[in-house]
């Protein structure tokens, strides 16, 4: 009885070094308030209390033996969110563009908590969900069934469900399915919540070495040759860095068109397979790129950046120079307003002044051409 009471009294001192000698406290079970009865017949050093080094060794052994439990724990549980439960709505969730580690804890929480995940390719996205042990059901949602799925998804959202939308890589709705659904939800006053994440656009731009003060994201060019060249002409006359998404099998054609419109000396950066094992940033001029990739056919998604046109602050064109540029563009089939827009992009002159000149010089010519047709 005395021994068990003794152990309870000394339990809190068990982590003290064995070399410590402590005067025993007055026991609460003294037989008489006037008579001190000591129950300590020896010093504390005689008890087998563990030393500090022994205590640390035992703790390290525990964590070592249970390391698998810690390493395989759910990252959402390891870093619990302090936010309140998710509210119903459409969540646009950014996912890795190559490296599975590039996903946020918030994205994992949303994907785990959603009622359904809309996915561009369920097989591709299934690998991501399997990697993070997420069991939320997937529903295919891509450009070929987007219009058919909209009403089904809208009904689920109106019923108060949490719907997450992901693309194969990056942020949904940016050159990927999702834009129309987001617009529809906004029109119906359904919350649209962005969950920021990886972006090929921002990743390539930040590491390009080109100006990031101002840039234009063009994305994928139109398939029609005339429309594609027209868009390149607009980009060639802008001072901002131009950013394109280019399929690998169309890179050669893109470089041919771009070098003829931007000029061979314009600098460019070709970012390929970003965040993956074979990540590559090729830097040089459009002329050098055309030569380098004429024989070498790259693989993987490509983000291509072209530096903006350098415009001197004192650069102004004479009336004859303006007239020549307008005439050349109109002869190529551009409308008067488009010709004015393109010329104005390459000079500091006001578009209104250029438009007045264009009407004066070519207004009657365009009217007569229209009458003839």
Automatic annotation (TrEMBL):
The keyword rRNA processing applies. GO terms for molecular function: methyltransferase activity. It holds the Pfam family TP_methylase. Keywords: Cytoplasm, Methyltransferase, rRNA processing, S-adenosyl-L-methionine, Transferase. GO terms for biological process: methylation; rRNA processing. Residues 90-289 form the Tetrapyrrole methylase domain. PROSITE patterns: RSMI. HAMAP family: 16SrRNA_methyltr_I. This is Tetrapyrrole (Corrin/Porphyrin) Methylase. It comes from Abeliophyllum distichum.
